[in-house]
Design goal:
4 helices; 0% strand; 62 residues
């Protein structure tokens, strides 16, 4: 998946109320890396992007 689309999906989930630290804990991505990715400063490694995409596919925000 495109990193920009993944970033938008992550920001949407966080804006909907899920805490970024919880996402980091569930995915195994370091919180500081996830924060920098969320804010557009870095791109994720391919493995981390795949894990995050899989996690976001399962997240349901009411």
């Amino acid at each position: 998946m495109n990193q920009e689309i993944l970033r938008e999906r992550l920001n949407h989930v966080i804006d909907s109320g899920l805490v970024a630290r919880a996402v980091a804990g569930k995915t195994g991505i370091a919180a500081d890396v996830l924060s920098r990715f969320k804010n557009g400063y870095v791109c994720l490694r391919e493995e981390d992007a795949a894990v995050l995409e899989s996690y976001l596919d399962k997240v349901v925000i009411p």
